[in-house]
Amino acid sequence: MKHSFGSDNHSGVAPEIMDAIIRINSGFADAYGEDALTLKVESIFKEQFGPDTGAYLVFNGTGANILALKALTNSYNSILCPETAHINVDECGAPEKMTGCKLIPLPQKDGKVTPESVKKELKGFGFQHHAQPKVLSISQPTEMGTIYTPAEIKELADLMHSHNGYLHIDGSRISNAAAALDMPVARFTSEIGVDALSFGGTKNGLLIGEALLLFRKEHNENFLYIRKQAAQLYSKNRFMAAQFEAYLKDNLNIKMAKHSNSMAKYLEQQLAGISQVKITRSVDTNAVFAIIPPELCEKLQQRHHFHVWEEETNEVRWMCSFNTTKEDIDQFIADINQSI
After folding, report:
1. pLDDT class for 1, splitting at 50, 70, 90?
2. CA-CA distance, 245 to 225, in Å (whole number)?
3. Is the pLDDT of residue 38 over 70?
4. pTM higher than 0.85 for the full model?
5. Which residues neighbour 51 within 8 Å (Cβ) at sequence distance 6 or greater?
6. What is the maximum span of the chain, computed from C-alpha positions, in angstroms?
7. Mean pLDDT of 63-80
């Protein structure tokens, strides 16, 4: 496949990450996360997010999300989320199956929920016939590539805490959010009341693995057993840890995310003069959403891979990656102009 705008999952592995894997591929080490490198990565996360942080490496984003929600809930609880949330749309019912909780989709605008929309579902407390609301799960960035401000996140966290609940962030592209906000991830997560964070990497240059961060002591007490039961404990864990050590060193994750964000802005700029393309969402991170004519879409998809996000309006999504280049975008723009 030539350059793909379909997903940042389509990109390869960053050279620094592959080198890190190769460097540790010798000798022997303890298994199941008891190796020195995994312990070092856990320590790095504690340094960045606070001493109470529990850091757990898992295979994938769905696993991180499910286990975060499992740690924060009982099966009689409900989980609130935007109607567009990955846990609601793209995880095949896994959160409901694995937690036993009811998902409550909320109205959203550009992927974001408001305190007002959340408050409407914070009800039925103490009523035995009603699933008890416990967690609000949001994505940062959202599925639309948009960003919550730290103030917006804090308001949502405070709201959930005022109802004895929790806030979880699906951060599959959390480094892109940090790059866009120009601040450390902790500044808009653990430091303002977020209770759990799925810390993504594979959409930003990792080969395999995500990190789940739990910020409250009580959620870490029995979590090792929850991860094991969910088949998310890797035996040769040092190979995931090596990636995260390199990923977090010298802000490599932010550097790569800044590049993919800047490529999306460049794409937006190059599209500005094309009347058949209407940008539909704020380009905050590495996603560009646009409505284009179906006939143009069909011609483009013969040369480039991307997804139609909304079939009714023919809204498409173009994703940029850590290894997207200006030349890739220039060729894409040339093909659009040729197809018009």
Report:
1. low
2. 24
3. yes
4. yes
5. none
6. 62
7. 98
- State the DSSP string of 117-165: HHHTT---TT-TTS-EEEEEEEESS-TTS----HHHHHHHHHHHHHTT-
Task: Please report the sign of the dihedral spanned by the C-alpha atoms of residue 287, residue 291, residue 296, residue 298.
Answer: positive
Tokens describing residue 25: 């591929």
Distance CA 227, CA 12 (A): 27
Query: In DSSP terms, which residues pair with 167 in a beta bridge?
Result: 136
Domains of the chain: 14-250 (3.40.640.10), 252-339 (3.90.1150.10)
Closest listed residue to residue 122, CA positions, set 109, 113, 135 = 135
Rounded to a whole number of angstroms, the CA Rg of the chain reads: 20
Residues 308, 314: Cα–Cα separation, whole Å: 6
Q: What secondary structure letter does DSSP report for 185? A: G
Which residues have C-beta within 8 Å of that of residue 262, sequence separation ≥ 6? none
Q: Specify the amino acid at residue 93.
A: G
